[in-house]
Amino acid sequence: MDILKRQREFFMTQQTKDVSFRKKALKKLQKEIISREDAICDAVYADFKKPKFETLATETQFVLAELKLVLKNLELWARPQRKSATLMNWPSSDWIYSEPYGAVLIIAPWNYPFQLALAPLIGAIAAGNTVVIKPSEATPNTSKITAEIIEAVFPKEHAAVVEGGIEVSQNLLAQKWDYIFFTGSTNVGRIVYESAAKHLTPVTLELGGKNPCIVDESASISLAAKRIVWGKFINAGQTCIASDYILVHKSVKEKLIDALKQNITKGYGENIEDSPDFSRTVNQKHYNGLKKMLEGEEIIFGGNTNDEDNYLSPTLVNEPKLDSTLMHGEIFGPILPIIAYETEDDIHKYIMNYGKPLATYVFSNNKKFQKRIINNYSFGGGAINDTVIQITNKKLPFGGVGASGMGAYHGRTSFDIFSHQKAIIKKANWLDAPLRYPPYNLPMKLVKKVKHLF
Ligand code: NAD
Prior knowledge:
Elements: H1 2-12, H2 19-35, H3 37-48, H4 52-78, E1 81-83, E2 92-100, E3 103-107, H5 115-126, E4 130-134, H6 140-153, E5 159-161, H7 166-173, E6 179-183, H8 186-198, E7 203-206, E8 212-215, H9 221-233, E9 245-249, H10 253-268, H11 284-294, E10 298-301, E11 305-306, E12 311-312, E13 315-318, E14 335-341, H12 344-352, E15 359-363, H13 367-376, E16 381-384, E17 398-399, E18 405-406, E19 408-409, H14 412-417, E20 419-427, H15 444-449
Parallel strand pairs: 3-4, 3-6, 4-5, 6-7, 8-9, 8-15, 9-14, 13-14, 15-16
Antiparallel strand pairs: 1-2, 2-20, 7-18, 10-13, 11-12, 17-19
Helix pairs in contact: 2-4, 2-6, 3-4, 3-6, 4-5, 9-10
This protein binds nicotinamide-adenine-dinucleotide.
């Protein structure tokens, strides 16, 4: 592929190794995003009626905050880090150099179509790589404006967008990249991992999962409901870290359901279809999949649809069966199943039924219970007494584990994942300690006893 060849040649010119060159490009990107912020909001709206406030908060301002942090800290992050020497290599000065991998491929999904293409790009460019982004074909308007922005800011040999669907993605994956950053479903993540393995290309896989939201009997129910409803129905439930299902202690289940219903109506009004604050499902295929999940289920709130607009209202489902389509995989839409539990063993059975999720939430005022959930289960990240907000702190790494992915990014972590950590020892010549050379005359007892040999 011509673009990869051009990027490789450009990388070899060493220009991207210069931190001021990277900063200049990122500043230009910052300017371009600021000047086209309204157009980006319009594009995302055209794709799935995402409310402007949500696009500002979760796409453009999110990306601008990432840029600001990187621009402030890049010199510090990119500087070689000195480490103390060991007795074995003394006298020397020991260093870690952060070295760009080279040509990076970023494959993005549709659900936060601007943020999930741009945030990894910022890390990759900051670390000195060249980048090709493949945005999602499911959000064509955002894909187009992303391509325009990148073209306005970067020469193609530094960063470029290749638009298209699965075939384009597969053609890109067949090439030999130096790093692949993929955000999307677990199934496609497997395909990406396999393609990368052929070339031994390192990957970050940001995947999905079935995220439990646990509400125990000690929880502050009305506040819990407010925070669950916000995190679940923002972006019409098409959020990788949204609560997938609720496990609620049976003694507070009815109270929680009432509070959930109240909060949905408070946020989106009686006629949610008319609310300017509620997105649509991204396309007909996904919409039909969600409708199918509702077949045979006990809908206790919502379930309203409009086929012309891929509209599915916020929907609560009571006690779905474990073997139902709804409880089979990630829902990724505005449907929230509610399941009562009695004991912690019940919670355990549910959680262990699925791969490690991207997020887990616990609403509880019982510190010991909170601690048990955090310590006993493996998941990407999460929150106590809230949902989704763990993504907002750029000092925290964002990523999955097991079935929900590998590797993490945001802030400093983004710089680090797109950098190879190269260990260098600068050896002094004024002394050449004889202890490592044969014949080995050092008494064995001493070898075992000497501290800091390594
Ligand atoms: P997807 O896996 O269908 O598509 C993602 C990207 O992969 C798209 O660009 C698409 O063109 C490409 N693609 C699709 N099929 C392919 C194939 N067979 N071969 C090669 N490339 C292919 O995901 P999606 O539907 O766009 O996004 C939703 C999924 O992404 C959900 O599972 C969600 O949880 C996950 N997600 C994860 C995160 C995270 O940060 N962990 C963030 C957002 C979304």
